[in-house]
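User: Second chain of the day. Same drill as before.
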Amino acid sequence: MSRPKRVVALGDTHTGHLAGLTPPDFFEGRNSKLWRKVRKLNEECWAAFRKIIHKLQPIDILVVNGDAIEGPGSSSRTGATELIITDLGEQQRAAVQVISTVNAKRVFFTYGTPYHTTALGTDMERKIAEAFGGDIQAQQNLDVNGLVFNCRHKVSNSIVPYGGFTAVARDLLWNHMWADTGEAPEADVLIRSHIHHYAFCGDNRGLAMTLPALQAPMTKYGGRQCVSIVEWGLVHFDVTNKEEYAWQSHLVHLAGVKRRATKV
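Assistant: Same format as last time:
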């Protein structure tokens, strides 16, 4: 029997964004009330991340499931006003430091959304992946002790809470159908990111999951246009074989983003 392997799956770090997971060494502080709040949140996120990773050691496999950096942020959505790091090369270097902190034996990447990770046709996450062996794909199919993971960044979301499982369940069914053609491996565990919300569902052929994010819910776009719950954290798996595996989420309620009513 193979020994259990530990797999850590994370996504949506958005390194370089004021609410993304960015090492404090890269933080360019500003002397204002807003930026003092941002620095405090940055330190809280970094400490929570390091605590989880320390607890999970040793880690055999890390899956970085897209949107490792915030990117240029130059569209009309934010106009780059939410960037801690504006230089994309520095964003990439900071993301390498984040991933290095995990100290995984092997690292696999998926491509994120073009808005964040593609500039003028260049996939910026490829440079990050090259620092860890260069294994980056649109989707990763990983056989871990006989248990097959299918990892891809993007999945659609629902505007109603009770519809949150529909999209990832649809992806699982499409995966089964691809497998039935013989042209793709069938997933035992299907992992998606992008929606910054942790949920899971499944059937007798597989488990489907959306990962929490490692970007805190402190964005202009999210604050003004979105109402769904954002969850911060990651998920790990311990895999003995295809029939015997377990997973656990590591979700953190960040003090720096709690909202309170204004007394009037």
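The two ends are 65 Å apart (CA to CA).

User: Great, on to the next one.
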